[in-house]
């Protein structure tokens, strides 16, 4: 279906919507991948999909108003949501972040509400496409994006194609097995042992830090912080690591090394141009001592483990779009689906 609507430089604008468990974010995105207007509302997911559709519309209206355009100007709508989902049917299956939204035909509902052609994409895949289209991966032909947070999300783009898998479960690389020992850590959500997410997701990092503190004999500054009422979180680990605490620095570097192990498995499978890191679990991110240490440690681990001919052509960097990656990528997926 060709795009239609009032044109902006390069073509008509798109509407990207990123549905999360806490907030629904929307953006009007021009044909070059630049955000022209934002909107955000609480998801209130406990009210169910009917109310959720109203919240999606509210976020979209806020973005349209911010951009100074009307819905009639928009060519298409792109949705990004947590999985699992059936992308061919446009249906959410049993998203853990959106309880009560099971088996909801969200794409059809949004398409009917807005009277616009609509796409549905996994949120990590959408973020990856956003970086590929107009972010840190815009000069690459292929990329892997890690989204590091409570869980470990992954999106893979190969020559403008989103790797979705035959049953909509492609790129679920947070569940790569990195530890095959019988006593490997158990993922609290899936029950699987030894997965990357069990070690490098926020809960895994906290569990590893707690284990280290239990044998530390009071040497780490984290003991004093915790005794003073602080909560053991990745943020606390990052703060104490920035102060030079040996235990916290060990957790940071081990997390980067383990992520490197998972990354190399992907590199040897698809041989991408670049690997990008995004999310709250990048230990401060770009421009911080801890963030740079995390990135450098990951790079070294990848270089140590990957085939030299793979590693020498690879760029490992932080992502560039921040919180806009999901909405930009959702809009980009809609543009890709309906252009021409």
Core attributes:
about 350 residues; alpha/beta; Nucleotidyltransferase, domain 5; 2 domains; five-stranded mixed sheet; 12 strands; globular; disordered N terminus; glucokinase activity
Task: Explain this structure.
- It is an enzyme of class 2 (transferase).
- This protein is of the alpha/beta class and 340 residues long.
- It has 11 helices and 12 strands.
- The longest helix has 25 residues, at 246-270.
- The model is unreliable at 1-7 (pLDDT under 50).
CATH level-3 fold name of the largest domain: Nucleotidyltransferase, domain 5
Q: Which of globular, elongated, flat, extended, rod-shaped describes the shape?
A: globular
Give the tally of β-strands.
12
Q: Number of domains in the coordinates?
A: 2
Q: Note the gap between the termini.
A: 7 Å
Q: What helical percentage do the residues reach?
A: 25-40%
What is the average per-residue confidence, as pLDDT, rounded to a whole number?
95
Structural class: alpha/beta
Strand content: 15-25%
The CATH C-level name of the largest domain is: Alpha Beta
Q: In what order do the strands lie side by side in the largest sheet? A: 3-2-1-4-7
**Helix-strand pattern:** EEEHEEEHEHEEEHHHHHEHHEH
Q: Please report the number of helical segments.
A: 11
**Low-confidence parts, pLDDT < 50 over ≥5 residues?**
1-7
């Amino acid at each position: 279906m060709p795009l239609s609507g009032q044109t902006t430089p390069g073509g008509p604008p798109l509407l990207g919507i990123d549905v999360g468990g806490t907030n629904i974010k929307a953006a009007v995105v021009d044909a070059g991948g630049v955000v022209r207007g934002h909107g955000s509302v609480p998801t209130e997911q406990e009210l169910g999909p009917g109310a959720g559709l109203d919240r999606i519309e509210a976020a979209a209206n806020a973005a349209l108003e911010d951009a100074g355009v009307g819905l009639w100007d928009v060519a298409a709508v792109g949705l990004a949501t947590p999985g699992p989902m059936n992308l061919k049917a446009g249906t959410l299956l049993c998203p853990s972040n959106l309880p009560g939204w099971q088996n909801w035909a969200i794409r059809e509902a949004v398409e009917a509400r807005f009277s616009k052609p609509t796409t549905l994409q996994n949120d990590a895949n959408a973020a990856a496409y956003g970086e590929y289209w107009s972010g840190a991966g815009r000069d690459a032909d292929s990329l892997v994006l890690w989204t590091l947070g409570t869980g470990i999300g992954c999106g893979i783009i190969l020559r403008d194609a989103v790797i979705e898998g035959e049953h909509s479960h492609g790129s679920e690389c947070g569940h790569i097995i990195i530890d095959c020992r019988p006593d490997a850590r158990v993922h609290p959500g899936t029950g699987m042992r030894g997965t990357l997410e069990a070690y490098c997701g926020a809960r895994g990092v906290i569990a590893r830090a707690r284990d280290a503190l239990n044998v530390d004999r009071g040497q780490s500054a984290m003991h004093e912080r915790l005794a003073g009422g602080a909560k053991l979180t990745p943020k606390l680990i990052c703060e104490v690591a920035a102060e030079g605490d040996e235990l916290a620095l060990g957790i940071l570097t081990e997390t980067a090394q383990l992520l490197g192990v998972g990354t190399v498995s992907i590199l040897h499978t698809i041989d991408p141009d670049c690997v990008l890191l995004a999310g709250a679990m990048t230990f401060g991110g770009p421009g911080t001592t801890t963030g740079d240490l995390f990135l450098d440690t990951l790079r070294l681990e990848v270089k140590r483990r990957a085939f030299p001919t793979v590693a020498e052509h690879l760029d490992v960097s932080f992502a560039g779009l921040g919180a806009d990656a999901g909405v930009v990528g959702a809009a980009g997926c809609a543009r890709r689906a309906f252009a021409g």
